[in-house]
Amino acid sequence: MRLNLIGLGAVMAVSLFSASAHATEYMYRDLMANTLPTQKCDTKEAAETKAAKQFKINIYTKKFCQTQGYGWHVEAVKETGKIICNECAGDSGTFQCYREDIVVQCKRIKPGTVGMLPGKG
Q1: More exposed terminus of the chain, fewer Cβ within 10 Å: N or C?
Q2: How many Cα atoms sit within 13 Å of 43 on the Cβ side?
Q3: What share of the chain is helix, strand, coil (3-state, %, to 5)?
Q4: Which of 24, 85, 29, 109 is nearest to 61 (CA)?
Q5: Which residues of 33-60 are buried (b: 16+ CB within 10 A; e: fewer)?
Q6: pTM for the full model?
């Protein structure tokens, strides 16, 4: 009985470590896009501060990659862009700001590399 358990354990260990190891391959895509302007008209300093928040950059870069389709996510933010401010139409001295030319690298698992297709690999 004890010999059978040792033999079963050895067979399981060999089968576990002898499985073919395939490296996961990724597809990459670089995107350049702009954020939306701040919602409210504000002083130039306040509008720039709102547009410059890291939270906004994270949210928009995630959205940029998700617009590419299923499975795309952010790999890296290559360029955070520059802040552009436009004066509001009705109010003088108030502005709406946004980030222009944010460059983000998106990645997705390459189809067929990690057992996504039955009987392959």
Answers
A1: N
A2: 2
A3: 30, 30, 40
A4: 29
A5: bebebbeebbeeeebbebbeeeebbeeb
A6: 0.70
**Which spans in 18-99 are helix H?**
44-52, 54-66
What is the average pLDDT value for the chain, to the nearest integer? 84
Query: Are the beta carbons of 60 and 35 closer than 8 angstroms?
Result: yes
Q: Which two tokens stand for residue 17?
A: 């470590």
Mean pLDDT of 1-16: 59
Question: Which pLDDT score, from 0 to 100, does residue 19 have?
Answer: 47
* C-alpha span between 8 and 20 (Å, rounded): 21
* Tens of pLDDT, residues 83-94: 999 999 887 889
